Amino acid sequence: MQSEIEVELSMSIFILAYTVGPLFFGRASEVYCRVRLLQISNLWYLAWNLGCGFAQSLAGLFVLLFLAGIGGSAPAVLGGGAIRGTWKFYTLAPVLGPIVGPIAGGFIAEYSTWCWVFWSSSAAAAVIQISACFGCASRIPLHTGNKPGDGNLLSKLGHALVRPFRIFTTQPIITVIALYMGYLFGTTYFMLATFPVIWSKLYSETPGIGGLNYVSIAIGSFRGIALNFFVIDRIYHNLKGKNGDVGRPEFRMPTMFIGSILITIGLFWYGWSVQVRCLQGMQTYTVDSYPTYAASAMATCALLRSLAGFPFPLFAPYLCKNLGSYALCRR
Description:
The chain is mainly α and 331 residues long. The protein has 18 helices and no strands.
């Protein structure tokens, strides 16, 4: 790659694909087995991500990255509608991904070729694919009352292009949450995009050693997750007890106020993750508010979130050059 914007575009193209996948996976998960959808999407990601390592041109690489990103977007949408009460495990993935990836990728790129960055992640996806191929529970139609062949496939999936936009335009709370999640997500990837500029160019560190600086994000993220879930549970149960032992989705929101304050502190410290505290509160609130259409509601948020995550990394290196690293951290 010849320019910095092309380097950042390789990450942004993958994120941009997250605006396409949720439109279909959100609706499909409300009709079909989520296990099957996760298996199919992972296989889709595996095939195109493997092809990235064989790309012979920059345009071909970008196309393959976009197609791989469509498959990679499925867990972000399907997870919210499937796991419900196991957020502690679900939120580990978005934290581990931006941390483990750059650390491993830095050493792989330093001691091997860039192709192995894609091939190694494809190998991990293959292991997950093999371990997950145990089929969908056959008793699900008995509990839901739906027959596996009911309805027209195109008609059902056609709603995928309508429902997220309808939810976004008719549900004010989803509009606000989606926009705020987009800002946080964009800021997160903006920060991640500045790491190679600061550590490799400013401090002249090798790609492998520079990648170890992502451990600082890991420390802040894991501390934030542990503390956040402790605070969420305490606040939720206290408010639930005061409300006649009846829970409400709004009882998940107080931690959002705490997180919004910590964002400023986190950007100054540059090691405290901006995505953990606020996104967890908004995700749990969204799922609790729309239990029947949780996947579609999450798809709406994922759409805005990914749209914001696409352009932010593109101007990060130029902002770092023009303002300097100190001014960049202050922003």
